[in-house]
Amino acid sequence: MSIEPPPEALSPGLYIVATPIGNLGDVTLRAVDSFTRCDVVACEDTRVTGKLLKHLGIHKPLHRYNDHSDEAARLRLVQMMQDNAVVLVSDAGTPLISDPGHRLVRDARAAGVAITSLPGACAAITALTLSGLPNDRFLFAGFLPVKEKARKAALEDAGAANATLIFYETGPRLVKSLDAMAELLPDRAISVARELTKLFEECRTGSAAVLAGHYRDNPPKGEIVLMVGPPAKAAFSQQDADALLRAALDIDKPSQAASKVAKAIGGDRKMLYARAMQLRAR
Ligand code: SAM
């Protein structure tokens, strides 16, 4: 009978490890390996992470670290990283993303601790890929404020960005946020992604007003990501495009002029290039 040698211990440092957001099958091979080979797991809630480790058949000392941990607790953990491999997890998903850990990473970095981050599930990115909304530019803005005035101000502020907006949301607050979006961003495409990676996963897209009506009638359960499509590009007339092209052609070659104007007005670069060639020939 051969006896497996114990797995080699990880070198001391901080390992930021993403965990599943619902479906335990999404735990990564590297996450399992790091749990197996680390000295201690720092986690938000020892019961939640204890369950995950039990599911994986791994026993490790758990060390509670969350937003309530004071500076002394944080510095003790940083001190521990000098001689121990410390894995940092949150209850679910990627640590630090609307979860504790920013100050810990900042202080560990300042103390010269070796740090690495093991990627994995993140609700914001999972929702964005599912939504069908444009994803070339996006703004992740965490949770909207609870109070109405602050929520509207945050929405107006984020709404000015030329990007898809991603918010984390809760069931009891979803309709209020959709109502605010219907008032402030009535023309934008909205997407609600719920219970991602779980049995009752759903993703609904429509106007804020229609979705608010739907969820008023069907109060949503579970975890939610709320997304807002980017503002529609201002419509430019052929005359506007020609004026911009002529100005650009004074200093640039047609290909550069077309690229610049395409970027400015969001037009088709090939068509603008063809038009630039026509204008230059006149
Ligand atoms: N760090 C986590 C991540 O990487 O996604 C997010 C933590 S934050 C405290 C929890 C919020 O993430 C939930 O309120 C919800 O908005 C979103 N979320 C987490 N899991 C989700 C899921 N399975 N489906 C939809 N949203 C989820």
Brief overview:
The chain is α/β, with parallel strands linked by helices and 282 residues long. The protein is built from 11 helices and 10 strands.
Distance between the ends: 88 Å
What gyration radius follows from the Cα positions, in whole Å? 25 Å
Structural class: alpha/beta
How are the strands of the biggest sheet laid out side by side?
3-2-4-1-5
Cofactors and ligands present?
S-adenosylmethionine
Per DSSP E runs of 2 or more residues, the count of β-strands stands at 10
Mean pLDDT: 94
Q: Supply the CATH superfamily name of the largest domain.
A: Tetrapyrrole methylase, N-terminal domain
What CATH calls the topology of the largest domain is Cobalt-precorrin-4 Transmethylase, domain 1
Q: State the domain count.
A: 3
Which consecutive residue ranges, at least 5 long each, have pLDDT under 50?
none
Verbal overview:
This protein has 282 residues and is of the alpha/beta class. The protein is built from 11 helices and 10 strands. The strands form 2 sheets. Strands 3-2-4-1-5 form a 5-stranded parallel beta sheet, sandwiched between helices. α6 packs across α7, α9 packs across α11 and α10 (254-265) crosses α11. The longest helix is centred in the middle third of the chain and has 14 residues, at 171-184. The termini are far apart. The mean pLDDT is 94.
What keyword list fits this structure?
single chain, 282 residues, alpha/beta, Cobalt-precorrin-4 Transmethylase, domain 1, Methyltransferase, Cobalt-precorrin-4 Transmethylase, Domain 2, 3 domains, five-stranded parallel sheet, five-stranded mixed sheet, 11 helices, 43% helix, binds S-adenosylmethionine
